[in-house]
Amino acid sequence: MIKQINNNKILIISHLADIDGMGSIILGKFYFKEFDYLLADNNYDFNLETDINAADYETIYICDLGFTDKNLQYCLSHPEIANKIKHFDHHESEEEKNKYSFVNEVIRLDDHLTSATELFYTYLLTLPNSEFLKSCFFQKLVEAIRREDTWTFEEVNNTLGPNLATLHAYLGATSFIDMISSLDCTGNFYLPQAYEDIIIRQNAIKDNDVANYVSKARLIEYRNYKIAVSISEGYRSYVGNELMKKYPEADFALIINFYRLTCSLRINNDKYDLGQVAQEFTHNGGGHKIAAGFQFDEDSTPKIEEIISKYLVLVKN
């Protein structure tokens, strides 16, 4: 978790792990200028009751994160806090919670899969003095983040989203936010040449790391599934995509990250809804149909131990 608390009246809580989580903070930097923020690794990494002093804020924006049962109950028992919350998320597994007035899960906007950044951007455009946000800079940035996060690369040469993800992985959250927020937003969106050079080098490292993770993957049978399993500390979407290519017979890919104590699920077809599959491992699991995940907890750990045991047998052989 990363916090920047400076006694402002606006708080943005967003996702630490990817550029969709960064998008709302970056847009906030341009529009609000001054606000507090909290970046959480996942839904279960922040607690509205203990991690912030919610009473101090006039508005609390929650972006790219769903509501845990604990945070739901806190809002239901504290309507004065719930009334301050504006929520922008797009995970199918959280959609049923729209029955609560403070939850806003939107999966599609117009005719496409949306992202938290796009939802927050669309909201900001309704606020006073937001005309400058209609520049090509913001439109290009928001669309690149949307395509990267929803894994929808309709254009062959659409590399901005992946390049931004590479920079985020290299710079870390706060430096990435500061770098993008320092760019000239009055024209088109361009990355400085120095960062283009970094991207070339880091993409080469990423390609090598992904190939290494995939080379050590194994196809295992677990219950009624055939799962392509890899141990990886990064690039989960890229690893998952390559695993599904390597093992077309797999029902889905599972990427285990011991550093973060999480598991990521990826698929490249519509055979399963991975948000529902993640909940088979633990009620805390969830996500999208083609990309989901869960933490190691008392429900999921015994199941992951079984998968790892099978994986190790195959690796040794």
Write the topology of this structure.
Layout: E1 2-4, E2 10-15, H1 19-31, E3 36-40, E4 59-63, H2 69-77, H3 79-82, E5 85-88, E6 108-109, E7 112-113, H4 116-124, H5 136-150, H6 160-171, H7 173-181, H8 193-215, E8 218-222, E9 225-231, H9 236-246, E10 252-257, E11 262-266, H10 274-281, E12 286-287, E13 291-295, H11 301-316
Parallel strand pairs: 2-3, 2-4, 4-5, 9-10
Antiparallel strand pairs: 1-3, 6-7, 8-9, 10-11, 11-13, 12-13
Helix pairs in contact: 1-4, 1-5, 1-7, 4-5, 5-6, 6-7, 6-8, 8-9
What can you tell me about this protein's structure?
The protein is α/β, with parallel strands linked by helices and 317 residues long. It has 11 helices and 13 strands. The chain has helices at 19-31, 69-77, 79-82, 116-124, 136-150, 160-171, 173-181, 193-215, 236-246, 274-281, 301-316; strands at residues 2-4, 10-15, 36-40, 59-63, 85-88, 108-109, 112-113, 218-222, 225-231, 252-257, 262-266, 286-287, 291-295. Strands 8-9-10-11-13-12 form a 6-stranded mixed sheet, sandwiched between helices. Strands 1-3-2-4-5 form a 5-stranded mixed sheet. Strands 6-7 form a two-stranded antiparallel ribbon. A hairpin with a 3-residue loop joins strand 12 (286-287) and strand 13 (291-295). Helix 4 runs antiparallel to helix 5 (136-150), helix 5 (136-150) packs across helix 6 (160-171) and helix 6 (160-171) crosses helix 8. The longest helix has 23 residues, at 193-215. The protein is globular. The relative contact order is 0.10. The mean pLDDT is 91.
